[in-house]
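Data availability (excerpt). The following record was deposited with the supplementary files.
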Amino acid sequence: MNVQGFLYMLHILFIVIGYSCITEVLSADGDVSKMMCEKYSEAVIQEEDSPVLTPGAGKNKVSTCGIVEVPLVVGGVKAGPREFPHMAIIGYGALETDISWMCGGTLVSDEWVLTAAHCGKSREKGPAKWVRLGELNLEDSDDDAQPQDFTISEMILHPDYKLPARYHDIALFKLSTKVVFSGYIRPACLQAEEHFKDTTGIAIGYGRMDYANDAQSKHLLKVTLNFVTNTDCVKYYKNDIGGRQIPEGIRDEQLCSGVLEGGKDTCQGDSGGPLQVVLEEPYCMYSVVGVTSFGKFCGFKNSPAIYTRVSSYIQWIESIVWK
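Predicted structure:
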């Protein structure tokens, strides 16, 4: 490791240690998340050696932001390099040579990934074991990406998650080693307030590209979806209320999103991934408002998907991630 890399790691270490020490004095739900959001945004700007071949020329500060100004999954388009540096992929299988990437997640600190509780294990391959960060295309080693694989050392599913119902479908996976942030890997922010002004969000994932096709995308896809109020969403799930997944209907801890005309949606394989909005401040950061949970028919008309509402679980998340 060069001197620049060592100093950067030291900088991040001071951030995490210093700010973990003052979390005890922050009492309101979301205070810690907001503070860490500000600190993680500092990783967007990195120092590089000056191209001027003059002794003592110093270093330049360079933005690694990859967010596309107009963000364009079923009906999705390919994400760009460094556009979603918080995206995590959850893998299953005992051997590193035989990993099945079947769920998504969000890096929320230097050692925790937020995902769906139902991603805790696969029916075919058992418990989740792997997390990959910094990826763009699962099969292309020449893409502009810097993937890193981690093993999962601990899984914490929300204590109220009880199958077959899909309520409280949220979990935190701890990585075996801490992450060094870069332009390709850094956490997202968490939506602490229930209400927000955005009318659309961005879903991302490596899931199936249409309902009839079992093949999952090898490239990270993104899609813009409309937020649907729970009152309206109930209309599209009226035949499902009282059933196994939503016996009590759509609850406040859930939110709906989709394109009611059809053609755009999340699908199998996108579970656990983030539904997010772009923040005005801090610079180049997303706020995760939902965790992909389940839906009806991917991309069909009048079939919005249901997500776990992150703001309803801020206190639970903070008590684990920044305890």
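Summary of structural features: The chain has one domain: 32-40+65-322.
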